[in-house]
Structure formats: C-alpha cells, structure tokens
Amino acid sequence: MRPPTLNIFPSQPMHVDPPSTKVSPATSGSRRPFEPSMELANARNDALSGPQPAKAIKREGNRKGPTTSSSEQEGPKTPDPKTLRRLAQNREAARKSRLRKKAYVQQLETSRIKLTQLEQELQRARSQGIFFGGNVLGGDQGLQVPVSNISTDAAVFDIEYARWLDEHHRVTCELRAAVQEHLPENELRLFVDNCLAHFDEAITLKSMVAKTDVFHIVSGMWKTPAERCFMWIGGFRPSELIKIILSQIEPLTEQQIVGICTLQQSTQEAEEALSQGLEALNHSLIDTITSDSLSCPPNMANYMGQMAIAMNKLSTIEGFVRQADNLRHQTIHRLHQILTTRQAARCFLAIAEYFNRLRALSSLWQARPRQD
Fold first, then answer.
1. Are 110 and 240 members of one domain?
2. Is residue 187 part of a domain?
3. Which GO terms describe its cellular component (predicted)?
C-alpha cells in the first residue's frame, strides 16, 4: 500500500478549532496523516538543536583538559629554606604570644580574686570592730583606735603587711633550711635572691600607702609596740642594722670590711641629713601655726591662711619617707653585693631573727600579768 502523502493544503485553517459537530469518516481520515508530520518536524528540530550542547561541553572539556594535565605535571612546589625558617619563626612567635596572653589573663584573674578577698576581709573586720596593728592614739595613752578612724588604704595596707609577714616567715624558713643543708653556691643564691625580692615587696607596699596616708606609715601603727620604739621615719634605721649583723657574718675579708665601713659611714651621713631636714620641717610647722595669736575664736582669715601654708609643708613628709625607704633599700642591696652568697644568707637570717624577737617581746609585754 502506498503511504499517505503530506496534506500541504488543508481544507480549513489550522489555527481555527474544529466545530463541535460530528466529524465524518472522510474528514478524520484526511486529518490523521497530519499528526505524523508534526512529530516528524519536532524530531527534526530536536535533532538540529540536540547536538549543540554536546559540542559545547566537548569544547569546554577540551579547553579544561590541558590545564589540568599541566598542573598535574608541575606538582607542588617545595619552599626554599628561607621561607621554611620564616614560617618556623612565625609559628614560634605565635606560640609565645599565646603563652603571654594566657599568663596575662591568669594574672588578671588572680588579682581580681585577691582584691575580692581583701574587700571581704576588710568588710568583715569593720563589722566585727577589729583593731589593726595594735593602733595606739598618742603613744602613751594606750587607747586603741578602731578601724573606722583609719583610712581604707591604711586598713588594706595592714592586711597586706600581715600577709607579707606570713610569707616572710615562709621565705626565711626556706633560706634557713637551704643554709643548714649546705646547698651549692648557685642553688643557695636562688633562696637569697628570693629573700631580697621579698624585702623589696615591703618597700613597694609602703610607697603605695604613703601616697594617700603618709601619717599611717610615720606613726608606725602597723608595727608592734617594741618595733615602734626603734622606728626612724617609717622604718628601721639602716646604720643600726649594719651594727647588729656585723658579728653574724664573720669572718670578713679586708676588702669586705672596708666596704661595710664605707657603707655604714655614708648611711649615717644620709640619716643625719634626713633627720635634720625633718626636724627643720617640724620647727617650720610650729612657726606657721603659731604665727598668729592663739586666741579662741581665731581670726578666720589669718587662720585659713596659716592652715593652707601648713598643709603645703606637710605634703613634704611623703618625700622624707620615700627617701628613708630608698636608703633602707640601697643599704640592703649594697650588703648583698659586698657579701658572699653564704654570708648574705646569714645576714638576711640575722635581720629576720632580730625583728622576730622584737615582735615576740611585744607579745610578752602585752601578755604580762597586770598589777592592781
């Protein structure tokens, strides 16, 4: 049978919907061959448009192919020694930076905890009415001064100084044990340096409170009564300390004897200069506040002028305390330089025992039986 031919000229337009009337067999037979023609046209369009993306993909694949193969052929580059050394230095610097940051954070946390504990202890002491340092008003009157009458900085200093005494006892015991065990010179030096550094901490504590409450340092209310008898401008007298330890560090070489004698002479001259300056300040203060009549009520204009001048003169007391502490600091460090390690160890042990006996004397005096 001959296949049907394409119906090029249909009997009616293709865009017009066929009428809803019943289609005759002739009409349906004539339109049936048109459907294969549409499928054939669609297949031809698909055939024309289909291979193009494949070609594009193939082209793109050909374009990328040589690049990949060239990179594989080259392989990873090996850094030169200079680059490797720089990378190692960067890693080491980063590691040290992390360690410093960690140590700084730990220090901040420790300081925060310590400050919180100090505030709690101070608040507890105030609520219980504790007296610090055996405070005595007027020296001979024997009246204790409550915490509320001293500044906050002075109360904090008393707590810190009590802790310093406990730590000083521990450091001294370690130094004494090291001397008794006859450790080598280099190992013993570590304990001596630790004791010297702990002495410097006391000087730092005093300098901090002297800026806000210098009279608390000068009055010696943070010391025991026996220690206050031997105080000189907020601390011990360096020349007297040299006399005390001389018999404890023998035998000395001739050069050491000359060095200690020179140190003692210069220390005495500095003490005399500071004492004369403080005495001149006392006389000047007396002249200032008595320059006008001591009648009551005073002339307020003159009175306020005198008080202003006296306040300016009193501010120089902090300078005297700072110079006296510097002299004490220089004397201890100079002795450490003149003496050998073992002599310096015996020297620091003798100083610690001297102040321990003064504190023990105060305790015995306060615990003595009272006579009616």
1. no
2. yes
3. nucleus
Higher pLDDT residue, 350 or 119?
350
Verify that 257 and 356 share a domain, yes or no: yes
Quick check: 227 and 324 in contact, CB under 8 A? no
Q: Measuring CA to CA, how many Å separate 152 from each of 123, 130, 157?
A: 10, 14, 9
Residues 6+ apart with CB under 8 A from 126: 147, 148, 155
- Helices (H), ranges, 181-316: 185-210, 214-219, 225-229, 238-246, 254-289, 300-314
Task: Give phi and psi for 132, each to the nearest 5.
Answer: -100, 135
**Distance, CA of 74 to CA of 282 (rounded, Å):** 90
pLDDT digits (tens, 9 = 90+) for 318-340: 999 999 999 999 999 999 999 99
Domain that includes residue 324, residue range: 152-367
Q: Which residues contact 225 (CB under 8 A, 6 or more apart)?
A: 134, 136, 362, 365, 366
Report the C-alpha dihedral over residues 208, 212, 214, 217, rounded to 10 degrees: -50
Instruction: For CA atoms 51, 56, 62, 68, give the dihedral sign.
Output: negative
Tell me how many domains the chain contains: 2
**Global confidence as pTM:** 0.60
Q: Is residue 264 within 8 Å of residue 239, measured between CB atoms?
A: yes
34 token code pair: 């048109």
135 found inside a domain: no
Nearest alpha-carbon partner for 243 in 277, 219, 271: 271
pLDDT tens-digit readout, 236-281: 999 999 998 888 888 899 999 999 999 999 999 999 999 999 999 9
Residue 69 lies in a domain: no
